[in-house]
Here is the input.
Amino acid sequence: MNGQDGSEKSVEEAEGHFGEVILETKEESEDQDVLQIFGQTLLVRASILLGKSLYNQALELGQQALAVFSAVSGYIDFRNACSLLSRIHRAMGDSNQADEYERRAEEYFRLEGIQ
Here is the structure.
C-alpha cells in the first residue's frame, strides 16, 4: 500500500510540475521552441491521464497538443499526438476515431521519412 501511495504522490507531483511548465510557457506563444515544449508537455500530461483512465481529460489535452503542433513545424510531434489520440479513442471504445488517428499517425510517419 505504501508503494501505491508513493507512486500516486509522484504522479501528482509530476502533474503539478507539468502544470507549472504549461503556465510558464503559455504566454510565450511566439517562440517556436516554447510552443513545441508546451505541446509535448500537454502530450505527457494526456498520457498520464490516459494511464489513470481519465479519458475525457486525456482527449481534451491530446487535442490541445495537436492544435499547438499546428503552429510549429515537424511531423514527429503530429505523429505522436495522433498516436496518443488513437490510443485514447480506442480506450474509450471509439474504434472509428481510433483508426482515423492511427491512419494520420502513419501518414505523418511516412512524411517525416522515418520509415
Q: What stands out?
A: The radius of gyration is 15 Å. Residues 2-112 form a domain with the Serine Threonine Protein Phosphatase 5, Tetratricopeptide repeat fold (CATH 1.25.40.10). The mean pLDDT is 82.
